[in-house]
Amino acid sequence: MAYIRSPREELTGYQERAPFRPSIDLRCDFVMVYGTDPTMPQRIREYRSQGYTVHLMTGISWGEYQDYLDGKWDGTKHWDEGQRDRNDQQVSHGPTVPYMCPTLSFADYLAEKLKTAVDCGAEAIHMEEPEYWDHSGYSPAFQREYENYYHEPWRPQHESPDAAYRSARLKVFLYCRAIGRISEKIKAYAKEKYGKDIRFYVPTHSLINYTTWKILSPEAELLSIPSVDGYIAQVWTGTSREGSVYEGAYRERTFETAFLEYGVMQELVRGTSRRMWFLNDPIEDRPMYTWENYELNYKKTLTASLLQPRVWHYEICPWPHRVFDGNYPRIPENAAAIPADTAAGQAMRALNGNMTPKPIPEAYASLLSAVFQLMGDMDQQDWEFENQPDSVGIFLSDSALYQRTFPDGIVQKGGLQRRMNKVLCKNTDPASFNREASQALMREVAEDPDLALDFIQSMAFPQFYGLALPLLKYGLAVRPVQLDNLKRFSGYLNGMRVLILSYEFLKPASIDIHTELAAWIRDGGKLIYVGDGSDPFHQVRSWWREAGYADPSAHLFQLCGLPKDANVGRYPVGKGAVTIVPYAPYTFCLSKAAADAWRQAVHQVLAEAGLPWQDRSDLTLRRGPYLISAVMDESVNNAPKVLQGLFADMLENNFAILRQKTIQPDSSAILFDFSKIEKETFRVIGSSARIEEASVTENAFTLRLRAADRIRVHTRLRLPGKVTELRGTDDSGNAVSLHDAWDDETRTLLLGYSSRGKAITVTGSMQSAAGIPLPENQ
User: Fold this and answer.
1) For labeling, which of 199, 291, 497, 709 is most exposed (least CB within 10 Å)?
2) Average pLDDT, the chain
């Protein structure tokens, strides 16, 4: 039973720069102590003394690295290695904290600093967020790297699609090189000095988010680094509330975006032995939102992550000190630097001037503590989506990062993003959304080719969401699939029946990708290719141009045996088929009519493949004893989903017992289904405290529980008999006040107490349950 497990399993953890304190003693499995400052050894000792497995996390692209920049490390100043834009302005995370161009010297400096963490006993190293901004790439260090890598003079990336593409590829290479060098050095040091194997992980945003935000970072390319052991998928409200356009409406869609983000991140480990933790954040980096808004969006990202059954490890909370000891809403410290016409600027202005920052509500703190423990019980190999195929994918590739900004001379007008920000609907104030104004703007985009180009490079990432959202919103659990992995893993596409591909916003890195894809099609796969050949990046120096093809799709079609004039419709290929849809993908997000046409095209291909796709507004997954469901708005209809059965509501603090759960549009539910444990006599249904030990006999049971300070703890247990007496004590023998309630129908006890950050022991007597088989003691 995963509720009672060893911390060595490392199913759940958090990152924290603050010293240990009872308010953040969340009783997960491991803690990633953050930063390499002089307090790091003491912080490692503190968390280890509390029973946590300790890792070390720090940044690879920015940090307090002034000793390196100022030349104190090696006698040479390195400020020319900070990222710079075309106006020679430093690209910074703070006034004296530049984003770095990761030179070999910088990688060696970081590896040297990390040796202290190994000396202090850290069992794993996490180097987070390898980030090279799209608009940077002009520093002296980068120019030197460009000339060394390409053996040609550096060219400013704003001059041509080819220069932009080559600069972007180099940025990703530089971080791959740095990660490989640091991880190899630190592993060798740990092995040579201590005879231990230290693990190395890369916490990183999703490919979808980095492409949206125009940040270059290795994603699938990380698979080429053998010394990397896994990743943390840094998906949270801050990444998933980025606006997208669907049926002409530009608005936040936190659940849908998060579902796709988590989906593409699992592709970094599928078919490998590497580890993936999914991150969830109860708040986000921007402090101007209310607790109610944080909770609303947290539940969306949480549900989205749990709807990915192939991953069951979680980072439960980054920076718990700012959650459990923070006060919100408040104006951010950098408020003056936030442009008024951005989404963040609008949210800041929406704050009521009289609103007083408040600490976390007791109910939300208790709910979070329960969810943190729930995440430790997600290794459920018996899972199934409700009446929906799980074998339809949309190709993504790291190359989507390389072409998010057009060079000079392609977009003539510009300024569309500012206009879009004015009509963006944020879920802080959905009632004020002017859908008609947004749809009118999208009609302009449809009619003006120059506006369309500006739309393609906007923060809405419409070339991807135009393909994904019309399908997801109608209940198709479409999966992002990594095109780059076709050349890495034999059988990577096994289990996939229908795949969607467009080279209008990404490119195949090598010709052998097409060899694998064509073989999959001939073996029965159905490919839908979407594109009109209009992307300016088709002309970059590449294998397809060298082979004489105007764009890479022409080579794929030839390899599949399609006629030279194939440009629309269905073409049989062996046991499979290629269907060509000759439109740029962004067009399918501009209106409902366009979305309907795209859905109809996909419906036809799925029907041919024998895959039932029933238009519906929900995604529902049975995952072991858990029933996880999200109902979307902007869908088939506005009807709620009604679930019948005998459930415990895992998003209610008392794990309320229900016979019926009604889920409204734009909301979700996580339920425990008692029909899955009819024969079990003892089980933890839910708890907001960690259950460290448990034992049960015919007429008594004992639990040892521990939770953070100031948490109102609720625990629901199935027991073999009704409780007749209950007693709680702390480790000093002091009595702990308990409340309890028994439910006959589910044979469960609900007990509760107010945690003071210390372990307590609960003992209970029960009515005799003779003849009922009891489990072994945990």
Assistant:
1) 709
2) 95
